[in-house]
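#struct-queue
[09:14] JT: dropping the first one here, sequence first, then the structure tokens:
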Amino acid sequence: MADTSAEIEALALGAMRAWVAGDVKAMKKLTARDFMFMVGTLPPQLLDRPSFIAAMERGFACTKFAFREVFVRQHGKSAWFIAGAELELRLGGKVWTGPFLLSALWRRGSIARNWNLSDMSLARLEEGDRLADAVRGLQLWKQA
């Protein structure tokens, strides 16, 4: 699992770097043909692979990113990547900065055996730690 975690984290870094660089070719190589991207807006919006690639070309940009907490959990031929991240996103004249939750499903191909980004979701996180503290208090494995 440790090797898978490092591999998935490296791929996630590569995907974010491709987005920051506007590298459509790299993003196409990393994403599955049925890739879907859910953006946590009200209401949530979905972009399929062609829409996301076109959006990258039309100015939906991630201009800065830094992962904070990173979790990878493998389930057979799939792996979930979850990270708290500091992001700067731009779309037209609008800029979103701050803490986000990035969730991505990576699937291993059956022929080429490489990992492809299948699904990704992005949602802005709420500031403050009162809710986080309350949820942490529910974790049975941390209670004495």
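[09:21] JT: and here's the second one, same format:
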Amino acid sequence: MGYLIFWGALFVITLVAEIATLQLISVWFSVGAAGAFIAAMSGIGFAGQLGIFVLISVFLLLITRPLLAKLRVSKEVPMNADKNVGETAVIIEEVNPALGTGRARTAGIEWIAVSETGEILPRDAIVLVTRVEGAKLYVRLAQDFEMPFERSC
């Protein structure tokens, strides 16, 4: 009777944890605990119950986790700002990290500009956008790169 309570409690705890997180972390252990509960009801000893719990849990984990991982891959939807990465821009206000100044224009839109290398970038410099974070363009001088860039401003 004691093992029935143990497996029943483990089943409930792991099921509640799964429902609370919805991360497919403990569902396999819930099924394993249910199998061990049935084994306990059938009169199988604790070692057998534990073996059934481990076998079912590990089997389900190994079989279903890779399949679910493939299904759960979210399609990252790029933001419109991400299209600016790799484009060139023109500095319209000196980029000076010490003063916290800097603006750039690309595709007709003005952005806050931040020097990727920490260097001061003068007005009218042609820069390459290396990343976008919020409303900030992180830029480097375009001449620092060997490939030619088209002016997209």
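[09:30] RK: nice, looked through the second one.
[09:31] RK: Strands lie at 88-96, 101-106, 109-115, 126-133, 136-141.
[09:31] JT: good to know. The radius of gyration is 29 Å.
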